[in-house]
Specification:
Layout lengths: L8 H23 L7 H6 L6 H12 L2 H14 L7 H22 L6 H6 L2 H34 L3 H50 L2 H10 L18 H16 L3 H7 L5 H33 L15 H10 L5 H41 L5 H23 L8 H25 L5 H20 L22 H15 L25 H24 L13 H16 L30
Helix pairs in contact: 1-8, 1-14, 3-8, 3-11, 3-12, 3-14, 4-12, 4-14, 4-16, 5-10, 5-12, 7-8, 7-13, 7-14, 7-15, 7-16, 8-9, 8-12, 8-14, 8-15, 9-12, 10-16, 10-19, 13-14, 14-15, 16-17, 16-19, 17-19
Length: 604
């Protein structure tokens, strides 16, 4: 790509100030308050955070630089159908609030995978945490790659420089400041994200003649689409794939993901956690819709001279290219945009680093240390090790950022990773919280089969390229003369006659059917396979092993299921203390105290 406009010294000052503020926040929380002297403060802020910063941080952790670059490009290239995914956020929020969240809040564990150990056993916990470990590392690499695209587009420097700058800064302030620094920095970075998007939209509106004109141009050129209700799973985006697939992705991220659950556990009570999640929803939806509209705003500028079709840029470079093309004469303004892109990447990566550090410490280091020494890891050693883990995991994500460029567009790449890994993980937790009869071997079987199947259909090939909406390059090489302008307008009119019909659409029938399934269906498939196969396999294993039913803790199930379990347990106790079917034959009751749950290790 040839860079025609580059950042000026004022832009670099703005970027430097943004990075300095982010690092300063980490230093501030290292030197004030509890000074991150305990693991509880480092990972959960001693349950002292307010609902507003947590609500904003929940949005920022989900909406990264991938969103700003990928969603805007999505609406520019493929139209507005993707906006429908916002309905899934509304439908998923109450499910998380009143389904998954009460279970985790009663557990109060640093790692969400402590639940899987209590419900199934150690093997399930290790498997799930390892899978998420891989997911977060891959995603962090993609997130680091996104700001690198913006930096390359605006400066002409290599991606290596920007990846190292952002990655090292993020690893530094995440490791020294802990979760409190990450949350407060997220609030600052959220403001920069909104400012960057509004800057793009208002600039385009001013140039083209208003917001209404942006919408009219998009409608004239076939970009407005909200009514695709096709039941064909190979159609890239439909109401069904976006609502169902987007809903499952939302649940996997907000309901059972270490990053978001860890944030929700930094507030004082379950009521506060629910309030933070409800605050997150309108902010999340607002940013998503604004990002979608920014793609239409950019299209209004390049409707007759598409830089992607003209091979000047790739789709993910679209927004930074627009900023430099239209705002380069305003010193500092492009720098504000790049700062917003960097902020979006920093917020997501810092969240991932803190969560990966928690998972590594709780699920691997502490058990391994106890196995080798017979003693628990001391709080002081745990804290020091947590900070080193956060920093070194940050270095690992920098390395993965260099291979992220081979995963395709950043939006689809990230949602594919979420679907392939998040679907089976969501299925594991759903199986545990929904089905009393599920066992560890059944759960591992269902999740393993689902993960292997999704990896096959997501990364197998060859696979078809999704058809893009048509664009024009008729005005790209027009000279400033009346004759050429009139000629170009004539060419544009001819080029626009069939703008609503996609061009160069491949013959998709020649590809293997499973490779044609929309990536939005990966998460629902993972959920269904894990729950369905896990439930069936649990019954088969139980039948062959002839194991006795063990006592189950109602607190490990969805509230609606827990009520039914408690009612049955109370009935069993009331009948003169005679054990019911959920208790082993040799179980003895103490009617003055509730039964004590023991880990279900018999199913390993």
């Amino acid at each position: 790509m040839i860079v025609t406009h580059t950042l000026q010294w004022a832009d670099y000052v703005v970027i430097a100030v943004m990075l300095a503020i982010s690092i300063s926040i980490g230093l501030y929380y290292r030197c004030t308050g509890g000074k991150q002297k305990t693991v509880e403060e480092y990972f959960s802020a001693n349950r002292s955070m307010g609902i507003l910063p947590v609500g904003i941080a929940l949005m920022v952790s989900f909406m990264s630089a991938i969103t700003l670059l990928g969603v805007s490009s999505e609406n520019y290239v493929y139209g507005t159908q993707f906006v429908v995914i916002n309905l899934s956020y509304l439908l998923g929020t109450p499910i998380v609030c009143y389904g998954f969240l009460p279970v985790f809040y009663k557990l109060q564990g640093t790692s969400v995978y402590e639940y899987l150990e209590k419900r199934f056993g150690t093997s399930t916990r290790v498997l799930a945490s390892f899978v998420l470990w891989i997911q977060l590392l891959l995603y962090s690499g993609v997130v680091l790659y996104a700001p690198a695209i913006a930096f390359e587009t605006t400066t002409g420097l290599s991606k290596t420089t920007s990846i190292l700058i952002v990655g090292l800064a993020c690893a530094f302030y995440s490791s020294i400041g802990g979760i409190k620094a990450v949350l407060i920095t997220d609030v600052f970075q959220a403001m920069l994200m909104f400012a960057s998007l509004l800057l793009v939209i208002f600039t385009a509106s001013s140039d083209i003649g208003g917001f209404g004109r942006i919408w009219e141009i998009a409608q004239e050129r076939g970009r407005i689409e909200f009514d695709n209700i096709s039941l064909n799973p190979t159609t890239r985006h439909t109401w069904w794939s976006l609502v169902i697939g987007g809903g499952c992705t939302f649940l996997s991220l907000y309901g059972v993901n270490q990053v978001q659950v860890q944030r929700l556990l930094t507030v004082r009570s379950l009521k506060s956690a629910r309030a933070a999640l409800w605050i997150n929803w309108p902010i999340l939806t607002a940013l998503s819709i604004i990002t979608c509209f920014s793609g239409l705003a950019i299209f209004s500028k390049y409707r007759d001279c598409d830089p992607i079709k003209d091979k000047k840029i790739t789709p993910d470079m679209l927004m930074p290219y627009y900023v430099m093309d239209t705002m380069s004469e305003w010193p500092g303004v492009p720098g504000l945009f790049i700062a917003g892109i960097f902020s979006a990447g920093l917020s997501t990566i810092s969240a991932a680093l803190n969560s990966l550090s928690a998972i590594t410490l709780e699920d691997y280091v502490k058990p391994l240390y106890f196995t080798c020494t017979g003693n628990d890891l001391s709080p002081q050693k745990s804290l020091i090790l947590s900070k080193f883990l956060a920093f070194f995991i940050g270095l690992a994500s920098i390395a993965l950022a260099f291979i992220a460029q081979y995963l395709g567009g950043v939006l689809q790449a990230s949602l594919t990773v979420f679907g392939v890994v998040g679907g089976p993980l969501l299925g594991l937790f759903t199986l545990g919280m929904l089905c009393e009869s599920a066992t560890q071997r059944g759960a591992i079987t269902g999740a393993s089969v689902a993960l292997a199947f999704l990896l096959w259909i997501a990364f197998g090939g060859p696979r078809p390229v999704p058809p893009k909406l048509p664009t024009s390059t008729a005005m790209c090489n027009v000279k400033v003369s009346l004759q050429n302008t009139i000629l170009a307008m004539t060419q544009t009119i001819g080029a626009n006659q069939n703008l609503t019909t996609p061009v160069n659409q491949p013959e998709v029938e020649q590809y293997f059917y499973l490779y044609r399934i929309s990536y939005m269906w990966y998460a629902p498939l993972g959920l269904l396979i894990t729950v369905g196969l896990g439930w069936a396999a649990s019954h088969v294993y139980r039948w062959f092993s002839s194991q006795e039913e063990m006592y189950v803790d109602p607190n490990l199930f969805f509230p609606c299921v827990a009520r039914r379990i408690k009612e049955r347990q109370e009935t069993d106790v009331d009948i003169r203390g005679i054990p019911g079917s959920i208790y082993p034959k040799n179980y003895s009751f103490n009617l003055s105290e509730p039964p004590i749950m023991e880990k279900n290790t018999t199913n390993i």
